[in-house]
What does this fold into?
Amino acid sequence: MLRRRGELDRLDARYGLGSDPRGVSGGPTYRARHRFNGLVATVATVGMLGLLLLMDGGGVAVATRALVGLGPEPPVRVALVDPGKGTYAFMAHQPGSRDPVAYDPCEVIRVEVNPDGAPAGYRELVDTAVDHVSEPTGLRFAVVGETDRRPHSDNRRTALPGGGWPPVLVSWADSDHVPGLAGDVAGLGGSTSIEELGRRRYVTGEITLDRGAFQHISGRPDSRAQMQAILDHEFGHLIGLTHVHDRGELMSDDNVGRTTWGPGDLAGLSRLGRGRCG
It folds into this structure.
């Protein structure tokens, strides 16, 4: 009996099974069940986190869902355009990729206009430029009103106090206020980008037009077409196109007479409409 009790004590110390001698064969079964329960708990935890991720409306959650292919689809998806012999280039690319940095196609790009120094009919010029860039990209714009904001203010690069970003600013200025307009520069355009989970997107921007150049153009017979071409060109910069050395494109760095999008412009614009939602 003493030997038997001693054996039971050793089994108890080894397997933690009390005084039941069946623990000799039951030990491995108990440990396997423990591992199985741990797996169930892990799967349940991952599933709960996944459910919370799907339900969360925050920016990080939206971006994470987009990375795994669960993001929303854009309301408008334009077909990619073949550039043919045309050329295009992007202002910036995604880290480690040739994909362009672009605006979120699921968000409406809001635009404000400062009319100080603007030519007559400036609102029609802005509305037409919005239409000209929206059609080949599928991006949606809304001109939300007028403002007294000036170009290159801190609002361009800083989020609003309550969250979000200020609207794109379209304004007229001169080289005294914006040195980049010196010389024969008729306008400047570009956007501010942020990076989330290793991917960049544009959130707001500015288009600044040279008031002196527009005053000079206003005396020409084709003044409206020339003014419109300048605005369209700068809106091209705003959403992500940069200059090319090709006079057949409106985004040419030496544009002479071109007033409409070229084949390369349209190809680049169609790709800038393929940004990722969120």
Notes: Helices lie at 2-15, 23-55, 59-67, 122-137, 211-217, 223-239, 263-272. The chain has two domains: 2-55, 74-272. Residues 5 and 104 are 74 Å apart (CA to CA).
